[in-house]
């Protein structure tokens, strides 16, 4: 299950990164901001999964 969550977090991070790049490329600040938010959420989810791994041993 942890691998599934890690994969989802990484996928969300990559989607955010792509959306941020697309928004920046076309000059759409709102799209770029949404991409940054998705990327940050993916980063936070990855950090949570890494912390869970530390406590599992």
Describe the protein:
The chain is mostly helical. It has helices spanning about 1-25, 30-55. It is elongated, with a radius of gyration of 13 Å.
- Give the terminus-to-terminus CA distance: 16 Å
Report the portion of residues in β strands.
under 5%
Query: Biggest β-sheet, characterized?
Result: none
* Number of E-state strands: 0
Please mark out the parts with pLDDT under 50 across 5 or more consecutive residues, or reply none: none
**Structural class, judged by helices and strands?**
mainly alpha
Helix amount: over 70%
Gyration radius from CA atoms, angstroms: 13 Å
The averaged pLDDT comes out at 92
SSE order:
HH
Number of helices: 2
Shape: elongated
What topology emerges from the helices and strands here?
Blueprint: H1 2-26, H2 29-56
Helix pairs in contact: 1-2
Give a short summary of the structure.
With 57 residues, this protein is mostly helical. It is built from 2 helices and no strands. The model has no long low-confidence stretch (mean pLDDT 92).
């Amino acid at each position: 299950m942890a691998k599934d969550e890690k994969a989802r977090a990484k996928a969300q991070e990559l989607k955010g990164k792509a959306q941020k790049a697309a928004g920046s490329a076309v000059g759409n600040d709102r799209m770029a901001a949404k991409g940054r938010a998705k990327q940050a959420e993916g980063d936070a989810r990855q950090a949570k999964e890494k912390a869970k791994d530390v406590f599992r041993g």
